[in-house]
Specification:
By secondary structure, the chain is of the alpha/beta class. It is built from seven helices and nine strands; from the N terminus they run βαβαβαβαβαββαβαβ. Strand 4, helix 4 and strand 5 form a beta-alpha-beta unit. It is globular.
């Protein structure tokens, strides 16, 4: 059977040092795809290095703040040193749990610049590596780009993630003649290093609000990402795939 992804190709993953991004790295590396990770300069590279080493694929991690457009462009360009870049997943993001009335301009800009501007800058750089031969880009959005979460105040995050979804549609149409597909995945509540530190009653509340009755594991987000990257979704572009356990269905 034809594999999901083409071994020997290269994937760019932003925010790939932990969480959903690291699960994506593990999923693509397991399929023989080399990985360039772009993450914050403070990110711990050890888990990323271990995953790629275990899979036996070439890899590199570059520390860059995704708000730095020129830095992102330089970092992503380095993926060409690993081979032909056919895949990209943009996971880097922050939350920002603040009420809107008292949110300062600096915090608003921080969230929107990381979560929306950073995705745009990464997509631009990835476009440059795919323009000649095509490729597939998946941006990590959120169910918060579709609905307002109950009991959670993060308007800047929700606005930025809604922007990521629509940005993907716009780029998908614009870049379709180049053979570049652009989609997004919108996870629901997911068990990551950050959410595992929540008080038990917080995660229990999230689970109760989700029809499937639990939070997602990171692998349950990574595998739909692989689907959108690979040939099985070759006629899918400009689409956002909700992976939310049914949260937005009621």
């Amino acid at each position: 059977m034809r594999p999901d992804l083409e071994a020997g190709r290269v994937a760019v993953v932003t925010g790939g040092a932990r969480g959903i991004g690291l699960a994506v790295v593990e999923a693509v590396a397991a399929r023989g795809v080399a990985v360039l990770c772009v993450d914050h300069p403070s990110a711990d590279p050890s888990a990323f290095d271990a995953v790629c080493r275990a899979a036996g694929v070439a890899s590199a991690l570059v520390g860059v703040d995704v708000r730095d457009r020129d830095g992102v462009r330089r970092a992503v360009a380095g993926a060409a040193d690993l081979g032909r870049v056919s895949y990209a997943v943009n996971c880097a993001g922050v939350d920002g749990l603040l009420g809107s009335a008292g949110m300062g301009a600096e915090e608003w800009r921080r969230v929107v610049q990381v979560d929306l501007d950073g995705v745009m800058f990464a997509c631009q750089a990835e476009h440059d590596l795919m323009a000649e031969h095509g490729g597939s880009i998946v941006n990590i959005a959120s169910m918060s780009g579709h609905v307002v979460n109950r009991g959670v105040t993060h308007a800047a995050y929700s606005a930025a993630k809604a922007g990521v979804i629509h940005l993907g549609r716009a780029l998908a149409v614009e870049w379709a003649p180049l053979g570049i597909r652009v989609n997004s995945v919108s996870p629901g509540y997911t068990l990551t290093a950050m959410t595992r530190t929540n008080a038990p009653e917080v995660n229990a509340g999230f689970a109760e609000q989700t029809p499937l009755g639990r939070l997602a594991e990171v692998e349950e987000v990574a595998e739909p990402v692989v689907f959108l990257l690979g040939w099985r979704s070759s006629f899918v572009t400009g689409t956002d795939l909700l992976v939310d356990g049914g949260f937005t269905a009621w």
